[in-house]
Amino acid sequence: MDKKVVKEKIILGLDPGTNIMGYGIILVKSSDLTLLQFGVIHLSKLDSHELRLKKIFDRVLSILDEFGPDEVALEAPFYGKNVQSMLKLGRAQGVAMSAALSRGIPIVEYAPKKIKQSVTGNGNASKEQVAKMLKTLFKFKETPKLMDATDALAVALCHHYQNGADKGKKKTWASFAKENPKRVK
Q: Using one digit for the tens of pLDDT, what is the confidence trace for 57-75?
């Protein structure tokens, strides 16, 4: 007898920041999605940018070691007018990427609009709309005060939809809703 092999994959989504960095971890088992953990890394109390970068590196490493993700997905920085902010954000992202690469974990970046489009069907959705969709999908009771956590969870979900178990088959919110009518109200 041939038993169907159920593939499991753990995806870590990161929303890089220099004051607050969000993270979200999901388990994908066949077509089932399970929220393992999501939260934020507080960085604003650290005095220097260098100390913040060290904390990002150390904390991302500890998350990697605790959950052993197979893949890491990050939100790509968007273009802003403040060059200094962009530079700092790029450094934060680079440090998070370095942590994943130091553990041999592949990384992928997604543009903010791509993430919103994958999760809500609208690339211009608000943070609140993204959080509400995730709350419905993963059935968590309260939306966190800091939406960096739900933003990071959205990055992980976007990665699953873009590169999930059904490679080659376009994954969108609409296709998920159609395939999972009992999970969507």
A: 999 999 999 999 999 999 9
For the chain, what is the domain count?
1
d(CA 138, CA 133): 9
Q: Is residue 1 part of a domain?
A: no
Q: What is the pLDDT of residues 109-131, one digit of tens each?
A: 999 999 999 999 999 999 999 99
* Residue predicted with more confidence, 87 or 66: 66
The verdict on residue 28 lying in a domain is yes
Active site residues: 15, 75, 148
Is 105 inside a domain boundary? yes
CATH number (domain holding residue 75):
3.30.420.10
In this structure, is residue 150 part of a structural domain? yes
**What is the side-by-side strand order in the sheet with 20-29?**
32-42, 20-29, 8-15, 71-75, 107-110
